[in-house]
Amino acid sequence: MSIIFEEVQRQLAARAYLDLPELLGPELSPDGNRVAFLWNETGRRELYIARCDTPGSHVQLTDRDLRGQAHYSDYCWGPESRVLYLYSTPHDNHGDANIAAVTLDGKWTHLCDVGIHQSPLATTPAGKVLIAGNDFRGIDSIHPEDGSRSELVDAEYAYVVNVDVSSDGEFILFSAIPDGGDGYYTGYWMSINNDDPHPIDPIDANGTVFPVGWLSSGDRAFVYEHQPKNRYGVLDPRDSTVEWIGKSPMVTPASPPESDEDSPIGMMPDDKTVIEILDGELTVVGSEEEVDMGTGTLVGADVQAGRIAAVTGQHEADAPRLVVVDWPEVTRRDLLKTAYGPVTPADNVAAEEYTYTPASTDELATVLVRRPERGPSPAVAITYFGNEPYDAFPRWDQYLVHRGYAVVRPAIPGAPFTDDEHADVAAVGEWLCDRDWVEDDRVAVFGHSSGARQVFMQLFTRDVWKAGIARCGPTNIFLQYERDDQTAWMHDPMGDPDEDEAVWRKQNPIDNVDGLEDPLRIHHGVNDSRVPIAQARALRTALLDADFVEHLDFEYSELPDVGHISVDIQQNAEELTQVVDFLNRYLKTDTPRKTGC
Fold first, then answer.
1. How confident is the model at residue 286 (pLDDT cuts 50, 70, 90)?
2. How far, rounded to the nearest angstrom, does the alpha carbon of residue 582 sit from its chain's CA centroid?
């Protein structure tokens, strides 16, 4: 009984951090009367709606219906503000995901089954639902009457976002990363009658233009050139011209925005007043009015029908709140105020910025969270791709620090599936081992999805780490290539899997298991549709065939009712407890580096 009690206590301690309230993705209805948003009040993200004129009027619409990694892109309003379209999963989290319609009184209608990741993005005046293709490639049109669908934009356009339809239903705007491009978003407009997409030409040859929305007349679009001029413009799709009308006061960031932060979010009905987010605050361009959104950083906002809805205060001194502001009266209403539990942001440890020298380029910044007053401690590196450090406040990081670890999230500039990538990840471990605040070279590497593939390759081919944890990672890149809609990022660095098989084998985790010398823990969701559970099971079999001993050389856990990502707090608490127990065994004890074979 005492063992069970201790396990419950550990999970409760983890939940204290994971239970921090979270509000996401405010989406105003077209008439501006209601706002939809995500909230984790129940212990996982669920979809709610609230009346914009009535604080406390929020109603929960979903009950474990949203897909596992529910976020702001998974729903949109219908054109008459009486229905929402959702990307959802069955209640048992098994079977195909689907697009469904839910009315304001909670009545559900199934429209069609969809693939790995297809999200509703917008609706036409005639009621057709526009969805992104698998992993945001292309745009399909669904007819709600019979669930039939047709291709509107083909899969050459990846990671489609910012879809908006003109009021007459003739044209659409969207942003996407085109195949063969430079990897940055480009803005497009097109006729909805299967016309080819037309890029929105910037005023500067090096500029990047993003569509923001349609003007009140409905026949012209508001666009924004992000770099290098930072100008607003009006697009007339009937003659393909853009009239550049002014310059934003925004400070130019280092790279094009990939979210609604530091970017315009809409224009008021006067077609002159632009609303944008700048450094976490709401800015009104073209007006001397100031909008008081209350305390806290702005983490999401929407503009419709002369009204602004926003979420503020995420993980700061004040708990998150949902705020609505009417324009031009500039009157603010707090529709929803959340409250903190036993853990508050005041308990968080502030991040520090360091630099390390990766193998493939010059020094880069890295974000570190630790408690220096505790002296040297073991360290965990959480890997990802990119040239800039990840600077959010992840709850897992804070809990790991609470349990006595330093946590670093480094930039990994080396291209995926190359020796540069592996050298850059290893350089993080070597850098940590050289820090006087890291205890006796006790460093572990932890990664999710592609980061988990990095963990496999580190423990199979490098002798830097004392332990590694891989979550939902591909173990056989040949199989992942066959089922993946995004093959370019694998094909470009490694070539064709048939013609360049030796190159692929060198980068394939399951072909390198013989090199395992340090404890490895494998976590994988049984319902993972992005990287199927079969990949983890195949690696487990390969390790056993190579005479490694489970529970001695490696640990293996299948996560029931979990997909590629989980937003269920209890699921995360159970998994986080397992992670910390593993780290405690191998980073806080003198367990030998080579434990089996």
1. low
2. 26
CB 309 within 8 A of CB 35: yes
Instruction: Centre a 10 Å sphere on the Cβ of residue 278 and count the other Cβ atoms it contains.
Output: 17
| Lowest-confidence segment of 5-19, 185-199, 539-553 by average pLDDT | 5-19
* Predicted local confidence at residue 147, as pLDDT: 83
Q: How far is CA 199 from CA 116, 195, 258, in A?
A: 27, 12, 18
- C-alpha distances in angstroms, 283 versus 54, 108, 231, 252, 405? 25, 38, 15, 15, 39
**By mean pLDDT, which of 255-259, 270-274, 494-498, 583-587 is the weakest?**
255-259
Strands (E), 477-539: 520-525
Q: Which of 521, 519, 491 lies closest to 507 in space, CA to CA?
A: 491
pLDDT > 70: what percent of the chain?
A: 81
Instruction: Give the span between the Cα atoms of 372 and 209, in whole angstroms.
Output: 44
Full DSSP string of 95-111: S--EEEEEETT--EEEE
**pLDDT for residue 556:** 97
Burial bucket for residue 207 (CB in 10 Å: 0-12, 13-18, 19+): middle
CA-based nearest residue to 48, from 73, 13, 23: 23
Query: How many CB atoms within 10 Å of residue 2?
Result: 6
Q: What is the pLDDT of residue 73?
A: 67
Candidates 494, 489, 422, 434; CA nearest to 460 is 422
User: What is the token pair recorded at 150?
Assistant: 């047709």
> Rg of the chain's alpha carbons, rounded to an integer?
25
Q: Report the side by side order of strands in the sheet with 83-88.
A: 75-77, 83-88, 98-103, 108-113
First CA to last CA distance, the chain: 34
CB 93 within 8 A of CB 68: yes
3-state SS string for 344-387: CHHHCCCEEEEEECCCCCCCEEEEEECCHHHCCEEEEEECCCEC
CA dihedral (480, 483, 487, 490) in degrees, to 10, reads: 10
Res 184: pLDDT: 72
Q: HSE (CB half, 13 Å, CA atoms) of 548?
A: 26
Tell whether the model's pLDDT for residue 56 goes beyond 90: yes
**CA dihedral (360, 363, 364, 367) positive or negative:** positive
Sort strands 321-326 and 331-337 into parallel, antiparallel or unpaired. Answer: antiparallel
- Please report the pLDDT score of residue 330 as a whole number: 73
Query: Looking at the predicted structure, is the pLDDT value of residue 51 above 70?
Result: yes
Those residues whose C-beta lies under 8 Å from the C-beta of residue 9, and which sit 6 or more positions away, are: none
3-state percent breakdown (helix, strand, coil) of the chain, nearest 5: 20, 35, 45
Tell me, yes or no, if the pTM score tops 0.85: no
Cα–Cα dist 470/478, whole Å: 19
> Which tokens hold the place of 430?
């070597």
CA dist., res. 490 & res. 496, Å (int): 9
Rounded Cα–Cα distance for residues 51 and 307 (Å): 12
Compute the mean pLDDT over every residue in the chain, rounded to the nearest whole number: 82
